[in-house]
Every structure is written in C-alpha cells, then in structure tokens.
Design goal:
InterPro entries: DUF1822. Keywords: Plasmid. This is DUF1822 family protein. It is a single chain. The protein contains 13 helices and 19 strands. The chain has helices at 27-37, 43-66, 82-87, 119-122, 151-160, 183-191, 206-219, 230-233, 236-243, 246-255, 262-276, 292-296, 314-327, and strands at 23-24, 72-73, 91-96, 99-106, 113-117, 130-137, 142-150, 170-174, 280-281, 300-301, 337-345, 348-359, 367-376, 387-392, 395-401, 411-418, 424-428, 434-436, 440-441. The chain is elongated, with a radius of gyration of 27 Å.
Length: 448
C-alpha cells in the first residue's frame, strides 16, 4: 500500500487536549480502513479513501454507543466502491434507518471552513437528508463527530448566500452552518420521517448522455492516467453525467489499471451504446413474441429448436447448426427460443442467429444465456478478418475473428448474465467498418 505514514503536522494534538466525546479507533478499524484504501492506486486518492473509511468506522461506533434502534446500511456507500470513492470526496449514500447520510471529513479541530463536494449538493443521486461533520484525528487514531447540517438547512443558507462552486467542483461553507450538538441528530433520526426533509427527485440523464457521448468518447480516455481528476478534463455539465453513471466511473477506474489496447476504446464505445440505446428483450421470445424493436430491425422468430437436416432456409438451416453445437457438447434445452436477422456489412450479406433461455441454478435463479451464431445469408464461407465482439457494462467479453486459413462458415459464442444485464453485439472488418446491433436484454415476464 502507498505510504499512509502519520506525517501531517497540523493534525497533531496532545492526547490530553482531545474532547471527551472523541471516538478512539481500534486496530481492527484501522486495518479495515487500510484494506479499503489499498484498492486505490493513486497515493492522494488512497489517503482520501483511508480518511473516509476511518470516518465511517467512527460514525458507526458513535451511533452504536448511543442508540441500538437504528441500523446502518453500507451497501451503497461510495467509500466501499473504489471508482466512486475516488470521484466523490465524501462518504455518500450511507443509509441510517430511512435516512440518507453523508459524512464530510476534516483533519483539524480548528478548521473554519468545510468543503462540500458539488456532487453531494447538486446531484439527487448523492444528496443526503443530513451532512455529518467528522473530524478525523489520524495521528491519534481517533475521530470526533462534530456537527451536522440538514439538506433543508443547507438550501435555506443557499438562498441568502451566493454560494459558488470552485473549479475543482467543491463548495466552501462556514462551520457555523453546522449544528454543534450531534446528539440532536440522534433525536431526528429516531423521531422524524424522511419526508420532513424533502430531497430532489432523480433526473433522467440518459438523453443527456446520448447527446454528449461523442464528447465523452474523446475525453474519458484522457482520465486513464492515475490521479487525473474528473474536473481537470470535464466540464461540470459533462461531469455530472459521468458521476450519475457509475458504469462510466468503473470504466475509468478499470482503464487506469490496464495497458492501452484497442479493446479499451472498443469497450468505451460499446459501454456508451449499452447505456444509451434501447435493447431487444429476448425474454419475450420464450412466449413466441417479438418486441417492437425486434420487429423494427426485422428479426424473425425461429420455431422450436429440433435438430434436423441442413437446408437453405434459415428455419431449416438452424436446427442443423444446433445439432452441430450439441455434438460439440453444448446443451441447449428444448425451451430455448431463437430468432435471426439478415444484414449487410459492406455489401456482404450476413445472418446472425440468437438463441436464449433461462438458466436454472439454485444459487443464482435469475440467470439467462445468449447464444450467438454468425454466418452468411448465402451459406458461403465468412469473409476473412471478420470479427464478432460481445460487450457488457464491464467491458469486452468476447472477441472472435475468422482465421483466413480455416475458411469458417460460422462464428459461435455464448455469454451468461443476470436479468438486469445487457449485451451489445458488434460485427466488424479490419478496415474499421462495423455494424452495431441494438443491445440484448432479458425480461421473460409476459405482458398482459
């Protein structure tokens, strides 16, 4: 792990001067913070995550010592997600009972200004009911819950003060805005209803993402250098779209840990398409139904997949392909359903078969699979250097290319995902000509 030495002079205090309400951090809590921050490679961002993890441990202990009727849910906490931990300088999306909490950290008992990340003030996805000020005294292995501020109070202050964010996407507010008696927070958490503090509704950013995706395609690769901050490359309008799409933050995080390859740029392009384009619902195929998008792109349902002799028509040809796959050991259940689409790639007539079925597994009941078979509509060998690529929101999953020596008639691949996952299929040639099909998704529930 990058240096986490205790070397910040302004944070050093004599133990005797610490307030009685100080939370002393245990060795296990410090170890937990080290482990969380070790997932971050850049040293400054790693230190930031370490301090936030200490604040989280201290707040949890503070709450546990004072009230046992409130439960803390860490599941969506940004500090536990490396990509979000690097992008948001706060402990956001912490749930206490029915309330959203955001921990804001400082490192000195004498700070007069507090920095609030713009994300936790202006983006509904991260705005809390309460901002809690935690002073982390790292040199003393201690922390102090120093105050709190409700979102409603923050808004009231904003109406009287022309609060402007800085170039690095932070608001600077005086500590006097915070209620200095944190025990009152316990009262609010136990007695108030969340609706008392109205939070803004989440906005739909998919259309905006679609509008600026070409800008992001050019800009996001500039963030591949570890330590480069979003605000150094993006405008706030671009940044808020990225911050509200964790998949893009994950792509940035993953790209910083990889060497540059062509698949890196392909994965970003595919991810943007997955996030912005409507998807085919192949789950409807199980009911012999095509959704409107499938009909728009001229997909045609195949009958039940019963092996038969190879013929020229798609309906008669595909059972022979299935028979060939089963002979290779691929088990395809009788309930599987498929469809096909003919399309052109530089005047080459291609045919893509897609087959789907629900995977039954006790440990993970909501799994589905997509089997893809790419051939030519004229039943000739596939053109040399043809490439079939399948991506999901984590990156490129499969990239298959025709071997010029083998004269292949088909390319086969199969992917598996949860019901909330989508797959993007692309077919290309080495000269850069590419066809992107609408994403595939799976929702087998029948519409009534």
């Amino acid at each position: 792990m990058t240096n986490l030495s205790k070397s910040t002079p302004q944070m050093r205090l004599d133990f005797e001067s610490l307030p009685t309400a100080t939370i002393t951090l245990s060795a296990d809590q410090i170890t937990q913070a080290v482990e969380l921050s070790s997932k971050i490679k850049n040293s400054s961002q790693q230190w930031q995550t370490y301090i936030h993890a200490l604040a989280l441990c201290a707040f949890e202990e503070w709450l546990a010592l004072r009230v046992n009727s409130l439960t803390i849910n860490r599941e969506r906490c940004t500090t536990l997600q490396p990509a979000l931990a690097k992008a948001i300088v706060a402990v956001a999306n912490l749930q206490v009972g029915k309330f959203k909490i955001c921990l804001i950290t400082t490192g000195s008992l004498t700070d007069e200004q507090i920095y609030l990340p713009q994300a936790v003030v202006d983006l509904p996805e991260y705005i809390p009911h309460f901002y809690v000020w935690v002073e982390v005294l790292e040199e003393e292995d201690a922390a102090l819950i120093s105050g709190f501020l409700s979102y409603q109070q923050l808004r009231e202050h904003q109406t009287t003060v022309n609060l402007q964010s800085s170039a690095d996407w932070n608001y600077q507010i005086p500590v006097s805005w915070f209620e200095k008696n944190p025990d009152r927070l316990l009262l609010y958490l136990r007695c108030l209803e969340p609706e008392t503090i109205a939070l803004p509704a989440k906005s739909e950013n998919t259309q905006l993402l679609s509008t600026i995706q070409n800008e992001l395609l050019a800009l996001l690769p500039q963030l591949r250098s570890p330590g480069t901050e979003l605000w150094q490359v993006l405008t706030w309008e671009q940044g808020k779209v990225v911050l509200t799409h964790p998949e893009l933050l994950n792509w940035i995080d993953n790209s910083q840990q990889q060497t540059h390859t062509s698949s890196t740029s392909d994965s970003l392009k595919d991810l943007l398409k997955l996030l912005t384009e409507p998807a085919l619902n192949v789950g409807r195929w199980l009911w012999d139904e095509l959704d409107e998008l499938a009909e728009e792109f001229s997909w045609r349902l195949l009958p039940s997949l019963t092996p038969a002799a190879a013929m020229r028509s798609p309906i008669e040809e595909f059972p022979a392909i299935i028979h060939q796959l089963q002979h290779r050991g691929l088990e395809i259940p009788a309930v599987a359903r498929g469809a096909y689409q003919d399309f052109l790639l530089t005047a080459i007539p291609l045919r893509l078969y897609a087959v789907t079925w629900h995977l039954l597994a006790e440990s993970e009941p909501n799994l589905w699979t997509l089997l893809l078979v790419l051939g030519t509509a004229s039943h000739t060998a596939l053109p040399v250097y043809l490439k079939l690529r399948v991506s999901d929101q984590t990156g490129v999953l499969v990239e298959q290319e025709i071997n010029p020596q083998q004269q292949d008639s088909y390319l086969f691949t199969r992917v598996v995902g949860n019901w909330d996952e989508k797959f993007l299929v692309s077919v290309s040639l080495t000269d850069g000509v590419e066809v992107n099909l609408p994403p595939f998704t799976f929702s087998p529930r029948r519409l009534v």
